[in-house]
Input
Amino acid sequence: MARQDLVICWSVQLRGRPMKVTIKHVAELAHVHSSTVSRVYSGKAKISAATRERVLAAAAQLNFHPNAIARSLTTRRAHVLGMVIPYTQEEFFLDPFFPQVLQGLSDVACRQGFRLLLAGVEDPADEPEAVLQLIRSQQVDGIIVQASRVGVDTTEVLLAEQHPFVLLGRPLQDAPGLSWVEVDARQATLEAVRYLAGLGHRRIAFIGGHPNMVVTIDRLEGYRQALEEAGIPYDERLVGYGGFRQEGGAEAMRRLLAMDGSRPTAVSAANDLMALGAMQALAEQGVRVPAECSVVGSNDSPIAALTNPRLTSSYAPYYELAREAARALIAQLEGARSEPVKRLIPCRLVVRDSTAPPAAGRAPSYG
Amino acid sequence: MARQDLVICWSVQLRGRPMKVTIKHVAELAHVHSSTVSRVYSGKAKISAATRERVLAAAAQLNFHPNAIARSLTTRRAHVLGMVIPYTQEEFFLDPFFPQVLQGLSDVACRQGFRLLLAGVEDPADEPEAVLQLIRSQQVDGIIVQASRVGVDTTEVLLAEQHPFVLLGRPLQDAPGLSWVEVDARQATLEAVRYLAGLGHRRIAFIGGHPNMVVTIDRLEGYRQALEEAGIPYDERLVGYGGFRQEGGAEAMRRLLAMDGSRPTAVSAANDLMALGAMQALAEQGVRVPAECSVVGSNDSPIAALTNPRLTSSYAPYYELAREAARALIAQLEGARSEPVKRLIPCRLVVRDSTAPPAAGRAPSYG
DNA sequence: GAATTGTGAGCGCTCACAATT
DNA sequence: GAATTGTGAGCGCTCACAATT
Output
């Protein structure tokens, strides 16, 4: 190893930064043209074994490593997928959504030779702007956009400017060119409530996150469909919202418990934190779970198996969701004219100990 | 808005990819030289108000956005911090460590104009190689390296090649030039065990993660120090390892419970999952927590407040840790010759319901 | 003629220096 | 002379084409 050479190279400075070994230095040492060195590293061109070896030997001697930035500039491909993350939003990092999505994205991206660029935004209101800036800067070839965090106007600009992107979440308004992937929240809530009805419950409450979110609309649709199937009339007093937080779930549950005489005997919550909040509120009032009230969560976060009683919850395959998103995005990047992907991934109810048939003694009253 | 112009621009293709609007197009339209446009966007140079306006108007008309890749190539700065993530390691994504670290990194990075590049590795054994490749490719200006995941050889290469990097975690072997940040696991365990001893416990067990990890060595040191302070002799039979997983914690606890006559009355675990596993094993054997055995976790993950009984745990400030790491890394990048940072961040014991004085009836026997 | 290698413009910026007002 | 703008080489690669064996 020519340590000496390296030190000499490093001591050369340009604009205050150390000069790096380039393809030209390698070419010189190997007595070939720089394009030949380029061919060895780009992989696709055919190079004689002898030349390749000479080049690689020279590269090793000089400790040469190709500059990905320079390559990106000429190929117009960064091999990077982008995502904007609202780093001030605590709940974003508490939810299993975030780590599972990043794991799924890394997985597919890495296998296909892509990396992930995360751009933080302090103010969630800046998220649409950050998305546009990131993709326009050409640092990323495509971008994963969280549908619930940008408006229709942003997706319109992305489409108009022909940027490759995939929405994580179903958009409020679909459009022909839009690609999106989402967990099937409607089906998840449908199955959860259907399961509760099947156990014999007739007064089943629903605790959603934020009323205006698409996922909430979807869940509510599943809820109503399950009621209809079971011949249970819809009662809007049994619907509450907890903002996806534990305390919000507890408050919603307290309001539900305040309706004496027509209290629910079961509740389906839009995430596990709110379900835990509901369990907490039930415990406060001395209502036993599941004997006197069944509770079902959503998304099946790791905590669901650790609570007491262990929480029945519908598993949301966020990992798989992210993998689909990355696949769809890379397909857009590689494929000439690929069809937009619009995909709902099914959830699966995981039955544990927080659900049981209604107590015989507590006959539900029909509104 | 010259939509028409845009469409014309886009229709121009180069090597199969759409031709983007560049600084030259803007210069032409604004009747200035391209370097003037560059000055407007680079910010630092002084430009007359009139020229700036003309340039910005032209840029807006053409929907121009600077190419960050090209800028990086000339300035030799990507304004990106890198990190390698082992995406096949389930526990990595289950632990609060990962989301909290990413939140902290995003926070500091974003405020300083940096982004985060994540490079996935399938096989954890490839992590050192991936770290070197990422930083050598010049896609990132500096890199956050997880100390427990690379060897001394990797840090030596990073130092020798003068790459800016900060270790997340205390290295096995420190070196003069190394910068690292770590949560003070020794102090955390010291306080936890000191607290248990203060409650009157004399047979206190310790459940570590993996025996060979630096963090485990640190915790064990804190454990022994606390015992010494309390005048309790060290008994190696009271030390077990659970691999940071719930089931591992349960198994370690079962082994501890098998020592009849000299069972521990308290246990300190190196993370909350193992503490929960221990609680599960205790429940299996009908040992009540905390009445008959106290349990302390580590890191204070969100689940700690949700278990039954709620878990006493030492809070590990991973968010702050990541912020320190990012700050130290950016300081290296900006500062000429900054001192290496070697920083232990204190943890804080959060007392909840899983700890109590030992039961009077169960007199501990002294090994 | 087929396989391999050389040639040199170009990717879209920035910066030192020169020229202009 | 001070403030602003133009000039053009250069960052480190790749790719179409030409030249060579």
